[in-house]
Amino acid sequence: ATTGVSINKTSQSLRETPQSVTVMTRQLMNEQNLNGLDEVMAQTPGITFSQRNFGSHVFSSRGFALEDESYTIDGVAGQGYSVTGWMTPDTEIYDRVEVLRGAAGLLIGAGNPGGAVNLVRKRPTALPQFSITTRAGSWDQYRVDLDGSSKLNDSGSVRGRFVTSYEDRGYFIDGLKKTAPLLYGILETDLSEDTTLTLGLRHQSADTHGYSIFGLPRYSNGKAIDLPRSTSLAQDWNRHQTRTDEVFSELETRFDENWSGTLSATHSDGAFDQKVAYAQGAIDPATQSGSRLVRTLFRSDTLQSDGFDSHLDGRFDAFGLTHQLTIGGNWSEQKRDSRYATVNSNRPLDIFNPDHDAIAEPARPAWRSTDYSDKRYGVYSNLRLSLTESLSLVMGGRVSWYDYQSQSAGVTTRAQEENQVTPFVGVIYDLNRDWSWYAQPHRYLPAAKRL
């Protein structure tokens, strides 16, 4: 059982966290064969999972969608649209997934009342370890995972870990298939007895054929159509390609047995390319027709994300009790260039005997584009006061700044917020060695639909 979480920047037990937190451990992911964040979130208590299109998902907590800003990796924000929009992270490289339900604006900034998700990367181990896992399943589903870690010098001051996987799979839907390679490497170096430098990288990509952005139609009277679940209205040349390349670093210094400081940075470049002919239209029960291949959509997006976090954490004694203080600041920026084009076809389609080569792949017309820039930064503090040995008061706050811009067809839209204060307070009472009671008030004030 997992007793500690790091979603609040410091390693704390679940009992020391005055919010609802679920930890999806590495053991649980292995036992339930959960290979993607979508699969993990679908099994997380209190999380509602829905699929927008194939490979694109929405996760909700307490009735609120967890937007891009709700996700962090090792406590660092800034991964943005790539998390849920075009490629679900492969969880083979993560040690655990921490899911917080409730307001999360203190450390994230532009949080929402639904919650937050923190992905904790696998770390190197000094003791040698190696594992290889192979899987095979229905509809030609195959996957292999390799995970190796060891010290890289005699003293163990340099440690490394390498994880790779490859998935080649089909689905119960006709013509739908995907290949997805993953590479991950991380290196830890003890610069001194008190300072550790961590460097790492990740490459993840996916190539999906037979991709579709809509489901099957219904009859015009609203009744369901008795179609085989394998039915696909996609064209054979429909394709969706995604890629994310990420580098990250962390410098941790332990000043003494009670105080430490951490600097963390992440940079990622992502892209996706899509060409998809799609069908729309309800079916007339009398004629058994009505669906048409209405158009082809071309999309090509690129995303550059940067995130930085620095914090100081420590414990101190006062009035005969031990207290904890965390202070820090973080910054993140995402720049996205979204290009799209459409070609109308308006060709009738027999959904009962779909032709996957009904139209030839059209030539792409000139791109239309929209550029986005999303920058946010802030400072935060969190103080845990032990009022008695059984009663603790947790309080803190954050001051945030936010700048959002979009540009399309020569028109620029901008939204800014400054000096946005997010307070935090909670109490924890230990009833006995196994049970604790906690309370925390929430107040949600969205600003410019972003904070």
From TrEMBL:
<keyword id="KW-0998">Cell outer membrane</keyword>
<keyword id="KW-0732">Signal</keyword>
<dbReference type="GO" id="GO:0009279">
    <property type="term" value="C:cell outer membrane"/>
</dbReference>
<keyword id="KW-0408">Iron</keyword>
<dbReference type="GO" id="GO:0015344">
    <property type="term" value="F:siderophore uptake transmembrane transporter activity"/>
</dbReference>
<feature type="domain" description="TonB-dependent receptor-like beta-barrel">
    <location>
        <begin position="226"/>
        <end position="439"/>
    </location>
</feature>
<keyword id="KW-1134">Transmembrane beta strand</keyword>
<keyword id="KW-0410">Iron transport</keyword>
<keyword id="KW-0813">Transport</keyword>
<keyword id="KW-0798">TonB box</keyword>
<comment type="similarity">
    <text>Belongs to the TonB-dependent receptor family.</text>
</comment>
<dbReference type="Pfam" id="PF00593">
    <property type="entry name" value="TonB_dep_Rec_b-barrel"/>
</dbReference>
<dbReference type="InterPro" id="IPR039426">
    <property type="entry name" value="TonB-dep_rcpt-like"/>
</dbReference>
<keyword id="KW-0406">Ion transport</keyword>
<protein>
    <submittedName>
        <fullName>Ton-B dependent siderophore receptor</fullName>
    </submittedName>
</protein>
<keyword id="KW-0812">Transmembrane</keyword>
<dbReference type="InterPro" id="IPR012910">
    <property type="entry name" value="Plug_dom"/>
</dbReference>
<dbReference type="InterPro" id="IPR000531">
    <property type="entry name" value="Beta-barrel_TonB"/>
</dbReference>
<keyword id="KW-0472">Membrane</keyword>
<dbReference type="Pfam" id="PF07715">
    <property type="entry name" value="Plug"/>
</dbReference>
<dbReference type="InterPro" id="IPR036942">
    <property type="entry name" value="Beta-barrel_TonB_sf"/>
</dbReference>
<dbReference type="InterPro" id="IPR037066">
    <property type="entry name" value="Plug_dom_sf"/>
</dbReference>
<feature type="domain" description="TonB-dependent receptor plug">
    <location>
        <begin position="14"/>
        <end position="116"/>
    </location>
</feature>
<keyword id="KW-0675">Receptor</keyword>
